[in-house]
Amino acid sequence: MDDSTSDNNNNNNNRNSNSNSSTDNKKEKKKDDDSNIFLDNLGKIFLSSLGIVLLMLFRSTKSSNSRIALRDEMENEALLDPLEIDDLRRANTDFTIAVWNTIVERVKNEFIARGVSSVTYPQFLSLVMSVMKEMKGEGFTIQMGHLIDRVVIAELERRRSDDKNNILDEVTSVNQESDELPLSFLLTSLSLALNSTVADRIRVLYECMLLLDTDGGGGEESNTSSVQVESMIQNLQSTCQLVADAQIVETNSKVPYQTFRVGTGKELIRRAREGYGGKKGQPGVTREVEGPITMEDFHAILKSRTVCAWGECYIKKTSRTSTSDL
After folding, report:
1. Dihedral pair phi/psi, residue 290, rounded to 5°
2. What SS3 state is found at 250?
3. Closest CA to 300 of 267, 269, 326
4. Please, which residues have CB within 8 angstroms of residue 69's CB and are 6 or more apart in sequence?
């Protein structure tokens, strides 16, 4: 009886031992199989990683080429190049801030005081020439004025082509005697010839916005509305006074690569006020992201990399309001 029981226990122990041994073997085999998954797919993982890197390089290159192509197109199609603008200002050494202020005062009395915000180009030129002759005689005029004419005529043509009231979408020829332009655009065009420092140019443009601001700029005399600034930035764009590269913004098309377009004045200002292009978390160039704009804010916007008027964003300054001379 005792011998039989002992034999049974031995048999059970042997079976348990065999079972444990089998389980251990299976675990070890499973571990071996698991450890081989990475090694067996090492080539696929490498090729996949390489493909992702190449795809990223392709998208980056195509995006960069798209931006460069747009910038080159903008520069080639620009009505004026920076050297022409520089020559225009150098040719008009007598067209000083004093002359400008007298012209603006006449514009205020003859047009703005009567509620007129748009006039024809001949009307505007007549006023300018009248003031200049009164100040310094018959020989005083805008030298190389054909450059300003080029900009104004192009704007008249653009506005005429955008006119949706044209019959059958046909663009009729420009009529300078009847087609009107905003005073803000005409004054911005005239500023191309103004021989002054950049600081003075910014100041007189800001004063023009205050003069034309019917929204009140938030109720403070030293502020102008963001709408006026958007319009001024658009005018500077149209008169070739902004750097081409700064005007480029991203489109919503990101597949297969990022594409770009020319931004509007509103978009450029928003990017400047929100700190676009700076370090992550860096504030914008103005104290407030929205609302009225002071002259200090206006200066900061113009020299930001998202607007860059007259190439000012490439010139290092020692203070926020210091500026270079031209």
Report:
1. -130, 170
2. strand
3. 269
4. none
Find the radius of gyration of the CA atoms of the chain. Answer: 35
| DSSP one-letter string for 111-138 | TGGGT--EEEHHHHHHHHHHHHHHHH-T
Q: Are 301 and 274 contacting, i.e. CB atoms less than 8 angstroms apart?
A: no
Q: In a 10 Å sphere around its CB, with 0-12 CB exposed, 13-18 middle and 19+ buried, how is residue 308 labelled?
A: buried
Q: Do you find a cis peptide bond into 122, omega within 30 degrees of 0?
A: no
Q: What is the DSSP letter of 162?
A: T
- 3-state SS, residue 182: strand
Report the distance separating Cα 260 and Cα 248, nearest Å: 6
Tell me the pLDDT band of 93, cut-offs 50, 70 and 90: very high
Q: Hey, is 315 helix, strand or coil? A: coil
Non-local (6+) Cβ contacts of 157 within 8 A are 171, 174
Mean of the per-residue pLDDT values for the chain?
Answer: 82
Given a cut of 70, whether residue 252 has pLDDT beyond it is: yes
Residue type, 18: N
pLDDT band at 185 (very low <50, low <70, confident <90, very high): very high
Tokens describing residue 170 = 């046909």
108-135: per-residue pLDDT in tens? 999 999 999 999 999 999 999 999 999 9
CB 306, CB 271: distance < 8 Å: yes
